[in-house]
Amino acid sequence: MTARYCYFLGLGSNLQPTSNLQTALHKLQAQFAQIILWPIIETEPVSIESQRIFLNTLVVVRSNWTPEQLKSWCNELEESLGRNRKDPLSSIKDRPLDIDILAQQSQLNLSVLECFTEPYVRQVIASAERATDQSPTTHPVSLWGHQLGQRAATVYPNHAGGHIMVVEDSVDRLFQCFEAPLDREQSLC
């Protein structure tokens, strides 16, 4: 049996950001089934010359893929939304989508959040810790029939009903929701 990992992904966009993040989040959920989604926030550009505000979020997915396989899939997703990864200046230009693999874990552990130093990631984490629906930095988007992005949420398929389930709560409780199916899967191996 292949190892199963939890990956923390940082997502950002400053070209058609609402639409591009919606597409990216739909594709992440379709590919990996269950995801944890942090609030979506507006941030100033860092390390690029741009007047365009970014939308950023943090997502956790579970996969049997290696980091290289996941990065390849993420790069393909970025390119499908118009990012030119062959441009040597792409890292300092506006972008329709940027996905960074921030961490890989064999067991989900919240303490990794303390290790992230990227300014946008710190802001996303702080926004989730405030956990209010009216935080001035959050930017809700319509996903799966819900306005998401203001609070942390777990998104997963309800296989019995064929629907997408969305649970919004504190990050700690969402990790418990996320880990429960993982524990069941591991006990079946």
What does this structure look like?
Residues 8-110 form the 7,8-dihydro-6-hydroxymethylpterin-pyrophosphokinase domain. It is an enzyme of class 2 (transferase). This is 2-amino-4-hydroxy-6-hydroxymethyldihydropteridine pyrophosphokinase. Keywords: ATP-binding, Folate biosynthesis, Kinase, Nucleotide-binding, Transferase. Belongs to the HPPK family. The structure is a single chain. β8 and β9 (163-168) form a beta hairpin. Mean pLDDT is 80; it is low at 182-189. By secondary structure, the protein is an alpha+beta fold. The protein has 4 helices and 9 strands. The N and C termini lie close together (8 Å). It has a single domain (5-188), classed as Alpha-Beta Plaits (2-Layer Sandwich). The protein is globular. Strands 1, 2, 3, 4, 5, 8 and 9 form a 7-stranded antiparallel beta sheet that branches. It has a two-stranded antiparallel sheet with strand order 6-7.
Topology summary:
Elements: E1 5-13, H1 17-32, E2 35-37, E3 41-43, E4 54-63, H2 67-80, E5 98-105, H3 119-130, E6 141-143, E7 146-148, E8 153-158, E9 163-168, H4 171-188
Antiparallel strand pairs: 1-4, 1-5, 2-4, 2-8, 3-4, 6-7, 8-9
- The name of the CATH architecture is 2-Layer Sandwich
Count, helices: 4
Q: What value does the Rg take, in angstroms? A: 16 Å
CATH fold description: Alpha-Beta Plaits
The CATH H-level superfamily is 7,8-Dihydro-6-hydroxymethylpterin-pyrophosphokinase HPPK
Distance between the termini: 8 Å
Q: Tell me, what is the CATH class? A: Alpha Beta
Strand content: 25-35%
What's the rounded overall pLDDT mean?
80
Global geometry? globular
Give the ordered list of helices and strands: EHEEEHEHEEEEH
How many distinct domains? 1
Fraction of helical residues: 25-40%
Profile the largest sheet: 7 strands, antiparallel
Low-confidence stretches: 182-189
The chain-level structural class is: alpha+beta
DSSP strand count: 9
